[in-house]
Amino acid sequence: MDYSNQIRDIAAKLFAEGKIDVFVGYRMSGFDDNQVPVVITDPKETSVLVFTEKSVFNLTNYLKADHTRNKRVGLVVKGCDSRSLNLLLTESQVKRDKLYIIGVACEGVVDDKGNKMQNCMECFIPDAVVYDEMLGKLQGKKDYIVNADITELATKGLVERREYFEEIFENCIRCNACRHSCPLCYCAKCCIDQETSTLYNGTNTSSSAFHALMTWSLHLAGRCVDCRNCEKACPSHLPLHLLHKQNEKVIYENFQNHLAGVEEGDRGAFYKYSLKDPDDFIM
Amino acid sequence: MARVGVFVCFCGANIADFVDVPTVVEEAKKIRDVKFAIDYKYMCSDPGQQMIRDAIVQHRLTSIVVAACSPRMHEKTFRKALSDAGMNPYLLECANIREHSSWVHQKDKKGATDKAGDLVRMAVAKSIANEQLHEISVPVTKRALVIGGGIAGIQAALDIADARIPVTLVERSPSIGGRMSQLDETFPTLDCSQCILTPKMVDVASHPYIELIPYSEVIELDGYVGNYKAKIRKKASYVNFKTCTGCGACSQKCPVKVPNEYNMGIDKRKAIYTPFPQAVPNKPVIDAEHCTYLLKGKCGICAKVCEKGSIDYKMVDEVIEREIGAVVVATGYDLWDATPYEEYGVGRYKDIINSLEFERMVSANGPTGGVPVRPSDGKVPKTVVFIKCVGSRDKAKGIEFCSKICCMYTAKHAILLHHKVHDSRAYIFYMDIRAAGKGYEEFVNRAQVETGAVYLRGRVSKIYQKGDKLMVRGEDGQLGQEVEVEADLVVLATAVIPDKGNPALARLLGISYDKYGYLSEAHPKLRPVETAKAGIFLAGCTQAPKDIPETVAQASACAAKVCGLFAGDTIKKDPMVSTVSKEFCSGCQNCVKVCPYQAIVTEDIPLGHGAKEMRTVAKINEGVCQGCGSCVAICRSMAINLAGFTDPQIINEIVAI
Amino acid sequence: MEAESKDKIVSIEKPELIAPPDWKPVIMGILCNWCSYAGSDLTGTSRTQYPPNIRIIRVPCSSRVDPWFIIKALQTTADGVLISGCHPGDCHYISGNYYARRRFLVTKELLKMVGFHGHRVQFSWVSAAEGAKFAQVVKKVTDDVVKLGPLHLYKKENFNR
Fold first, then answer.
1. CA distances (Å), B106 to each of B43, B574, B612, C26, in order?
2. B593 to chain A: which residues are within 8 Å by CB?
3. Model pTM greater than 0.90?
4. Is residue C53, in this structure, part of any structural domain at all?
5. Residue C80 domain-assigned?
6. Do C72 and B654 touch (CB under 8 A)?
7. Average pLDDT, chain C
8. Using CB atoms and an 8 Å cut-off, which of residues 625-654 of chain B contact chain A?
9. Which of B443, B468, B497 is the last residue of a domain?
10. What is the mean pLDDT of residues C87-101?
11. Substitution target from B11, B99, B594 for chain C, most C beta carbons within 10 A
C-alpha cells in the first residue's frame, strides 16, 4: 500500500487550483522509518507527503486545531479516520464544503515492529466512507468481529479482571494525552478539567484515573471508531482500547448492530433509541 | 458560608413512633453548615410554619431543610412559608423521612433513625448548592388553533370563540363537518345527524371570532405554550371564494368523474366539486389531481360557464402564518382496512361493504337516495348480515382494542335497515354487546325487539358466494352449533383507527402517540384532554375511539382548558429548566436531537472576545423546556445544567452520607 | 439481618478484605420524580416494609442520570446503586427513559468488565402504582449487595467537597 505519489499530485493540484489552504497528511519522521502527521500550507512542500502502511495516525484529530479551523482543508483518511470525520461532520465541528477528502481503501497499517495492528485485523470498514476522491481498490464492508482481547477478558473471573484493571488504572499518569489525541474529544473545556464540575480531581491516584478514564470512555461510547490514536499517544502504553471495544461490543450486540460513524448523519448510539432495545436487564 | 436550618417533623406519631426524632435533630446539629435544628409535632401546621419563618429571620438562615413527609406532599406548603419570610422559596429542600423511612422500616427503629439522619445530611448537602430561582412568566398570545373541522373541532372552536377568544380552525377537506356529516341518524335517539350538525357548521362560518381556513393543513408548529407560531398551507382551490356564489354550474358541466369520498366512493363526483350540499363553506374546489385542464391544459369548461369568472387556474398553494397560544387537535378517525380477513373475501365480493358505506346508503342525501342496495346488481337486499369486531379486539389480524362505537351503530343500522326495507331481516354476529351509556342498552333492546334483528354470538369463519348470494358461515355460541346465513349484503363493522396522518402530525406538534397512532393524553385518568406538551389539547377520536356525546364533551373540556390558559396575560412556569453555559458548549448539537420538546435551538456567538469568527452553541428556550434533564446527562462538555437538579446538587447528595 | 450472620462477609471483588462485623451496606437509589419516586411514596403510604439501607435521591427523569453519578456513588459512599424510572412508554417526558436505558446497559457492562460485580448496579422500572414492586426491588438489591460484601474499588478517601 503506497499512495505517496498520488497524494503528492492531488495535494499539488488542489493548491494550484486554489481549492485548499491547508493540507493534512503524513511525512517521514526523519529519525526512523516511522511517519508523523504534517500540516502543509506551502504548495512547495507537497513533496514531503507520503502514505504507506506506516501511516498510522488519524488525521481528523488535526481538524479541531486552530491552524485548520475555518480554513479549507485537504486531508487523507483511511476507513476508521473517515468514520470519525463523519461524526465530526454530524456534530457540526467541521464543514463538509471546507474539506477536500482523499479517501483510501486501507489495507491495514502496521505498528513499530511491522506487525499489522490489531484494529486493522479486526477492521470492518476498510474503505473510507466519506471522500471526494478514492485511492486504491475498494474492499467492501466486512463482518464485525468482537475484539480478541475482550473475548479473552470475558473468560477471566471477576477477581482476575479486577486485578488486571487495577493495574491499568494504577499506571495511568493522568497526562490526558489520550484525550488530546482523540479526534472526537473536541470539547471547549473537558468536563474532567472543569473546576466547577464535580468530576474535577487534580490528584493523581488510581481512583481519579478510574473516574476520568471511565467517564472518558463513556463519552466516547457509540462514537469511538477504534483508530487507536489514544493508545499510540499513551506514554504508559495502557490498553485503552479495552474500554472502547467493550462499549462497542455491547452497543453492537444490543442496539441494532450500531457502529459509530458508518452512516452519514448518525450521532452515536446514545443520541437515539429504539423501542426494541433490550429491557431484560432492568427489573 | 451556608447557614442551614433543619426542621424535623414528628408528624404526630407517624414519624415519631418509628424514628427517634430528637436523635435526628442531634445528628443534624453535628453537620458543619447547620446553624439551627429543631423538631416539632406538625411542621406543616400554622405554628410549625411560624417556627420556620421566625428561625429564618433570627438565625439569618440561607437555606432550609424540612425533614417530614414526601416533597410531593408538602413542598409547596413549605416553599410558601419561605416566601412569606422573605426568602427565595427554592432554597427549600425536603428530606422525606416519612414515606421513605418511618413508614417503611417500622420494625427497625435504629435503622429508620440512621436512615432519617442520612436523608437529612443529604438534603442539607443539596440545599447548600441550591440557588435562588424565580418562576418564569411567559406572555400569552390569545388565539387558539383548532386542527380538524369535525364535530370535535367545531364544538371546541365554537366554545372557545364564545368566550371571545379568536380561533383559527383548519380543515383538510374543502368543507368542515367531518365524519358526523356522513352519518344518517345518530344513536340512541335517532335524530338526524345533518339536522343537528349543520346549524353548528353555519355558526362556525358566521362567528366573528372564528377564522375558518378550509382545504388546508398545518405544516409547522414552532414555539411553546402561549407562544406558538403555526404555518398553515392553504391548498390551491382554483376558485376565488370571494366572488363565487356557489351556484354549482361548474360542477354540473364538468366532464371529469371521480369516486366521491363523501359517499365512500359509491358514486362519482366531478373534478370541480362541493363535497356535499350542506358544505361549509359552500364553494367548489378543483381537484388538481383529476382536472383535465390542470393536467393537460385542455378543457376549461368550468371557467367558461362561470358567470362570475371565479375560476383561476393559476392559483397556487399559499402558506399562512398565525401566532397562537394553544392548539386543539381533533383529527378524527378512519376505518380500518379489512383486507387481512381473507376468509371473508374482503375485496373479492362486491356485496361486502363497511359500515360507513352502509351509512351513506341509508342516508337520505346518500348516493342511493336512502335505500340500501347491493353494489353488485343494485337490488335491494332482504337479508343483511352485520359482523362486529372486524379488526377490533383481534390481536392476531387487527387491533387489540375495542372500537367502542360499533355495538351501538350496528344496532342503529339494524333499525335503519328495518325502516328503509320493511321486509328485511338483519343478522348480527357479535362477540359481546357493549352498550354502556345513557339510553344505550334500551336502544339495543329496541333493535332486537322492534326490528327482529337476530343477534348471533360468535365469530364468522367464512363467507363464500353461492349464486348471487353470500353464504355467511359462523358459529352460534349460545346454541353451540354452526349456522349459515344466506345474505344479500354483508356489512363489516371494521375497527376505528386514528387518521393515518396522526404520527406525522404528532411529530410536527412534538407530542406523543401510541402504537396505533392515537395521540397520547398527559394522564389517562386525571389529564385526559391535555398532552404532555403544555398548551396542546386533544378532542375526539384522535385520542381514542369515542361516540358523539363523548367527543363533544371532550371538545368542550378542551375549550375550558384553553380559556383557563388564556385567563391571564402571562403563564407562570416552574423555574426548573435547563440552561447552557456558552463558554463550555462545544456545539455538537446532540442536545438539540435528544430534547423531546424541541426546546433547544442554536445560536452563533463570537469565537472569542471581539472575534469576527463565529461559533455555534446551544440555546435553551426556557418557555418550552419542561425540565427533564435529558440534555444535561448527554452533554459531554457539561455545558448544560438543570436548575433545581444541578450536578453539584446531586453529587452533594451522593457524597453526603 | 447481615449483622446477625455468623459467616464473615468478604468483598466479592477483593476476597482478601473482610467486612467489619457492624458493616451495613449503603444503596444509593436514584429515582425519577414521576413514576418511581411516586411509587416509593406509595410503598410508604401502604406501609410495605423493606430494608433500611437505601438512600433515595430524587431526579426529574431517569434520563437526568449521568453514568458518572453511578461511578461517583460507587467511588464514594455506595456499595450498590439502584436506578429506577418509568416503564418504557410511560415516561413523563415522552422518551427520557429510552435514552437512559441505553446508557445504563453500557455503563453496567463496562463496570462489570473492569471488575465490579453486576449486582452492584441495578435498574428497575417502577410505576407510580407499583409500591409493592418497589419494596421487592429494594429488598432484592439489598440482599444482593449484602452477599457481595463491602465495595473497596477505587474508593476516594477525600471527596471533592
1. 21, 36, 66, 19
2. 267, 271-272
3. no
4. yes
5. yes
6. yes
7. 87
8. 634, 636-639, 647-648, 651
9. B497
10. 86
11. B99
